[in-house]
What we know:
It is rod-shaped and about 105 Å long. Strands 4-3-6-7 form a four-stranded antiparallel beta sheet, with no helix packed on it. Strands 1-2-5 form a three-stranded antiparallel beta sheet, with no helix packed on it. By secondary structure, the chain is mainly β. The model has no long low-confidence stretch (mean pLDDT 89). The chain is built from no helices and 15 strands. 0% of the residues lie in helices and 51% in strands. Strand 3 and strand 4 form a beta hairpin.
Amino acid sequence: DHKLLNSVQTLEIALDSVMNINCDDASNGEFWLSASGGDPSYDFYVNGAFIPGGHATGLDNGVYQTWVIDDDGCSDSLEVAVLQESLLQGSIYSQQNILCNNGNLGNVTVNGTTGTSPYEYSIDGINYSVDNSFTNLEEGSYTVNVMDATGCMAEVEVEILLLTQLNLQMNNIS
Length: 174
């Protein structure tokens, strides 16, 4: 007597790729899962919730428990981490305040740091340009917006000051 043994591969879940969160306070992380072996026709779950096709979207920063279940009810699991990428930041590179109210106005140059270059800048929150220098600024407070290539935003607070002339008096001391 001969017995025919059916050879079935063990069910395995795999992480195909992860897209980490690219902006502060965004819930735009995602990942793709696949499975092999077992009895095909796989159902995928993330933290207990069914996800069609093994594609999880709208994820926050964190670790997720994933499962795959095949037609025979066999399962495999895997932990997947979705990370927060470097947050976009901006800083003042140079600043010139108004000196002595002599008709010269202030200026500031701002740089984007971290995030994804190239960066665009705006001092009015509407018009963006790769030019990061702002001139002819009157005394006061300004917010320069920095936007990176992924659309993430950062703000840089700028205070242009009016520096008054220093008056010195010399007294003859005997």
